[in-house]
Amino acid sequence: xxILPLIDLLILSGTGLLAIGFVMKAISVTTTYQPSILxxxxxxxxxxxGICWGFALTLAARSWVRLNxxxxxxxxxxxxxxxxxxxxxxxDVANSLESSGNGQGRRPEATPISAATAERR
Length: 121
Prior knowledge:
Layout: H1 4-30, H2 42-102, H3 115-120
Helix pairs in contact: 1-2
């Protein structure tokens, strides 16, 4: 279903309802007659305008998100991958510094604890 014609219809009907509400309010201000169409007053038409424009805005936002969602997900995925690559590089640098600092490529052995030191702990 095409969304844009529906959005245009909601905007157009909201604008028409607003015009009708203004005309009815102008009539009620300038005369003693209180007009109503199908029991709706001028304020009711203004409220219906707000509802139509709100639905149009909601549909436009949903269609925009649906249209741009793959792009936004691709950008987010690229950011996560770039962060993972940076962390992998940091780990590689840390490992290469650790292995080159000893000269042997392995960690030095820990010094044995004497019996007196072990008893104090």
